[in-house]
Amino acid sequence: MLNRFPLWKNLMVIFVVAIGFLYAAPNLYGEDPALQISASRGAQVELATLDQVRELLSQAGIEPKHAAFENEQILIRFNNTEAQLKARDLVADKLGDDFVVALNLAPSTPAWLESIGAAPLKLGLDLRGGVHFLMEVDMAEAIAKQQEQMVQDFRSELRNEKIRYSGVNRSGDQVVVRFRDEESLDKALSHLRRQYQDLAFSSDTSNGQFSLRAGMSDQKLKEVRKYALEQNITIIRNRVNELGVAEPLVQQQGADRIVVELPGIQDTARAKEILGATATLEFHMVDETADPQSGRVPPSSKLYSDRHGRPVVLQKRIILTGDHIVGAQSGFDEYSRPQVNIKLDSQGGNKMAAFTKDNVGKGMATVFIEYKPVGEPGPDGKRKFRKNEEVINVATIQSRLGSQFRITGIDNANEAHNLALLLRAGALIAPIQIVEERTIGPSLGQQNIDSGLQAMMWSMVFIVLFMGIYYRAFGWVANLALSLNLVLLVGVMSMIPGATMTLPGIAGIVLTLGMAIDANVLIYERIREELRAGRGVQQAIHLGFDRAFSTIADSNITSLITAVILFGIGTGPIKGFALTLGIGLTISMFTAITVSRAIINLAWGGRRLDKLPI
């Protein structure tokens, strides 16, 4: 029968609308002020920690709304921000520096909605408030570190090839290798050129000196800078996870800068402390010929301290840096003693195998190196860093190591677990410093939300009034479809893991509302034309929807192409606008054509009518 949907199509419309309502529902419940507790280096969050925090809050007369231990973190919800701030001070003082105590906002979505994966719409920095950091990578330090590695590699290569040399060191932006005779120079030059084709080599035999100079080519320098930036971005993302931010933004800006946006973060000082910390890992051999207690250290070695303050003498030569580690898991050996299983990339595996084959039974230490800013920024806006070094583990090499090996000699399982976490986190290639910081308070974010909602409300009011007056009953059908469009848009945005609503996104919603109602206007005007041409009521409805479809499709597809291009080449707010617009256009096709027709079919389809309320 004309203008009658089959049962399956009506059920499909009901199902889609119901799913939209279901996944949009979490946005009605708001958020709770919360305290998130996670472990710092050398600590572990346990159920006992949760009991300790609960007892502390109880003694202070603070009644939390809810407290839970999940994913090795503690999340405590409060009824108001006053209790949240008071609890933060108490808990941070009690737990000390071994734990990260951060203020946050936690969704108060009911458990039954969370069980089906429903979550509130993620809000961007301009709506939720939070902190914006612009960080700069110290590329000079990254290049210097690569040159130090070149020194170590050259020594190993020449030693393996039995080529005698008198010294290898850095000189400016080059590595200089000195020889006693020209024959050794020629052999070294020939071998190193084959092994390191991305370096520029030159020789000097003047004044009775035989030396070889190696510098990084422009392409090699570009690769070093790119790798340093990418590695730092990865590690910063890992650190952001400690803060429990729902939808952080960490992306590259320019050649040496990183943008970090943390929506919802209230404790900006703690966020700055965690993200600004710069650390790396190095593996060294233990110098077993030196006595740490005597204080006498050979020129080729250096005196370190472990985490308990005990002296350890290590060789200066770096076996491997932490940026070659691709995996680390704690476990137990065949004697039920704790260990950490390490996995290296192919280059790291080759280096480790080449070095350890002749050092079985000797000690190897893992050194944690942290760069901390000191003093005030200089005239150029940059700060100096102090290098702190600490031995976190000394283990015995049991056999020749390759891409996979294990670290033993660890005191307990917790120590093994923490060491694995540290190794998995990776190592920053170079220090970073925060060159710009902006904080958007929750009140300003709420003001932006209120302004955006007012814009949507007034646009909806004018559209509803116009459609209801001009198209009468059919206009109210369009208004109902438009309301469902808004609900479905919020539901779909809430379902997409990477979707974030920003202020430009709200502008995209307002634009979508206008374009969605435009489709109904085209259909209704077409129906009116068919009625004026003498068509029957049912035939006019049928032809109105069918003949307007191509026009609606062309208009929306061209707009959708624009949204895709904006999303592909845009950044930040532009992406948010494009994503909202693209999703809104797709949904408007469904609501304007399928949902509104289903309602019209149910109300007027298949009936003998002389006229339509249009």
TrEMBL record:
GO terms for biological process: intracellular protein transmembrane transport; protein targeting; protein transport by the Sec complex. Residues 303-430 form the SecDF P1 head subdomain domain. Residues 229-288 form the Protein translocase subunit SecDF P1 domain. GO terms for molecular function: protein-transporting ATPase activity. Residues 137-164 form a coiled coil. Residues 2-103 form the SecD export protein N-terminal TM domain. Residues 432-600 form the Protein export membrane protein SecD/SecF C-terminal domain. It is a multi-pass membrane protein. The keyword Transmembrane applies. One of its GO terms (cellular component) is plasma membrane. The chain crosses the membrane at residues 455-473, 480-500, 506-527, 548-570, 576-600. Gene3D superfamilies: 3.30.1360.200, 3.30.70.260, 3.30.70.3400, Multidrug efflux transporter AcrB transmembrane domain. Forms a complex with SecF. Part of the essential Sec protein translocation apparatus which comprises SecA, SecYEG and auxiliary proteins SecDF-YajC and YidC. Belongs to the SecD/SecF family. SecD subfamily. Part of the Sec protein translocase complex. Interacts with the SecYEG preprotein conducting channel. SecDF uses the proton motive force (PMF) to complete protein translocation after the ATP-dependent function of SecA. This is Protein translocase subunit SecD. It comes from Aeromonas simiae.
